Amino acid sequence: MAQGVLPFKYVESKKSQSMTNFSGLLAYVELLHRMGFFELVSRYVRVHGGDQGWLDSQILLHLLLLHLSGGDCPEDIERLESDKGLCKALKQLEKRLLGVKSAKEIDRRFRGRKGRQRCFASPNAIRNYMERFHNEKGEEDRVLGEAYIPVSNEYLEGLSWLNSEFLSFMQLNINSGQETETETETETLDGDATLVASEKSEALYCYKKFPGYQPLNIFWHEQGMVVHSEFRDGNVPAGHEIKRVFCESLDRLPQGVKKVRFRGDSAAYQYELLDFCELGDHKRFGRIEFVISCDICDSFKKSVVRIGDEEWKPIYRHLGNGIKIKTNQQWSEVAYVGSLKSPDYRYIVIREPIAHQRSLPLPGIGDGDGDEYQSESQRSLPFPNYEDPTNGVRYELSGLVTNMGWDGEELIHWSRKRCGNSEHAHSVMKSDLGGGKLPSGKFGANACWWQVMVLALNLHEMFKRLCLSPEWHNRRLKSLRYWFIYVVGRVEKWGRQLQVILDKSQKAFEMYINARKRIASLISLPGG
Q1: How confident is the model at residue 49 (pLDDT cuts 50, 70, 90)?
Q2: CA distance 479 to 153
Q3: How far is CA 15 from the centre of its chain?
Q4: What is the DSSP string of 474-500?
Q5: Phi and psi (nearest 5°) for 77?
Q6: Is the pLDDT higher at 388 or at 413?
Q7: pTM to 2 decimals?
């Protein structure tokens, strides 16, 4: 009987064959082994301290592979469990990955039941594991309608510090062949929050009027990695306790980093944070240079109105090779004092003519309320703007505050690099990885899922930079899945050696060999 319209049919094999559709995942496992991941997990994360069930390192490995392979919920682990070749390979490698002692302990842990039946933890086991990261006592302090961040329990804190070891491994090996820790002059940290929509009844509404969560992330620009990520409810503003999160991020940076600069959006425009950076209150890094988007308040607009036409300078788009194009944006220094209690900071304003502004219904400058520079139509626009009294043109406004002495246009271009990189990382988190779909109604379980996703993101960045050729460094994870991870192979045991046999026409074979050579040359973390 025909199965469909076209002349082909699906036939199920009568024999189970050790085939895998995820040959590339084994290279990621090898990188984790080289880093000392399994020893580090036992140091930082001690959830399963009993004598039954899976080891912490096993479940975290399963979750990392789930994210890397494209799964977005615990139930998707069954896709990996059904891959007989991948399961065969991981079982054969367990003694090397976990150590002989831990491998024997696994058998002992499952001895009291029917024995170990699976290679990967079941969805139920994964969900139960993630719920251990939920701090029920912290939920008791919630107040309806108020922003609140539950205190992380020791397990969630352990995942965060485990992530810091990923950063140290990257910093240690970023220069090929270097045998000492890299000491970088200056590194850039970018702060940005992202919204994750959720249909869970426990999710709270965010400022964009849908239920979800709003994690706050601190990115390491030069390495493309997340230094620290704090999972938050949707109703918690991005700027809430941002100084504390920034300080925690500084503590997680590798020792090789000697100086830090910070970029942030208007959520970071808080004098507590600005003064902390300017006054050098951090014991390790001292004074921290920053560029942060500032609020466009009424007093700021009044200062902008006083700027003479000759003080506005054009902003150019730089195309490389000394070629630059003049844009319709302009910048100027602003004589503005944000707070009398803080040091004097440098303010820069950027203005851009509003397109088709002559067609807007602008009923004059004054509206009878004493604000001569602000009209009724101005307040109805969804962005900060003002009308220049000298030429009658209406401009969209944005501003920066900084403690740096760079040229204004240079500061503007440098500040804008934050937006593209953080938005790209957020897209990878929520689209390429499983961060866009949260699996539980319990805050701590979702925080665990998110934190493991961050580990997967950083693992992927490490793999690209340390194990692949430069042409792959800027490729998305979904591209690498297509070319590297989703490769069919047959897993066989030849003597004491495991073999993954690829089709002759597979172009990934050479990539695998080169990646493994580079992994073998990497330096493991001390004590890892």
Answers
A1: low
A2: 36
A3: 43
A4: T--HHHHIIIIIS--EEEEEETTEEEE
A5: -65, -25
A6: 413
A7: 0.90
